[in-house]
Amino acid sequence: MRWLRRLLGGGRVQLDPARQQAxxxxxxxRYGAHARIGFPEQVEAITALLDSDDGLVVAAxxxxxxxxxxYADLQAQAQEFHRRTGRRLLVHRRNYRPLWxxxxxxxxxxxxxxxxxxxxxxxxxxxxxxxxxxxxxxxxVTDPNPLLTRVFEVLDLTTAGWEYGRxxxxxxxxxxxxxxxLSAGQVLAAMDDPPRLPPPxxxxxxxxxxxxxxxxxxxxxxxxxxxxATMRERLLV
Length: 237
Description:
Layout: H1 2-8, H2 17-30, H3 39-49, H4 53-85, H5 97-103, H6 120-133, H7 138-141, H8 144-164, H9 171-190, H10 199-205, E1 211-214, E2 221-225, H11 227-235
Antiparallel strand pairs: 1-2
């Protein structure tokens, strides 16, 4: 594995765990739904803050933590659903779409209320931007394969939330999806042996559906997004 050879050999970089913890705490406390600036401005500020190898480690940590906590949340929801209805729901991290197709109306989209407090349109959008922008540095600080898996998980949750989870597609939601797809493509392009695309991505790439994108503050549609077409353009490298 190239990333491990670089960590053990001449590609080693100087990382500062204390600096990483300070950055993580800053990003966690200063930004999110409570911040006084809009999500696009928050993403820009966080991206600049994490523009370093230590920042890349923090960004990777944010993406992984969000994916892990979302999975734990959905498992808990599935257990509660079974307790109430007697029906079992299967929660598979590689493909959340069957879960949402079966029980989307009974599930809560997890990304708005995770224990970590990271907001999908602020810290998460910024973290995936950093991961994509610095994709060629990833194998110097971490294994890119599990991180790419987590990026795809968050993308799966985002698009499934639109389709089955009553999550409104506004400009902030569309920006998150766009950043996730772009970042995944950048990481794939930087890998020597990229993995096969996961099932939900391949399913969406077979479609050509355009969704209305709304103004965050009102009902007006201000544009559109075609996830399948965007994935085909950016992920089929």
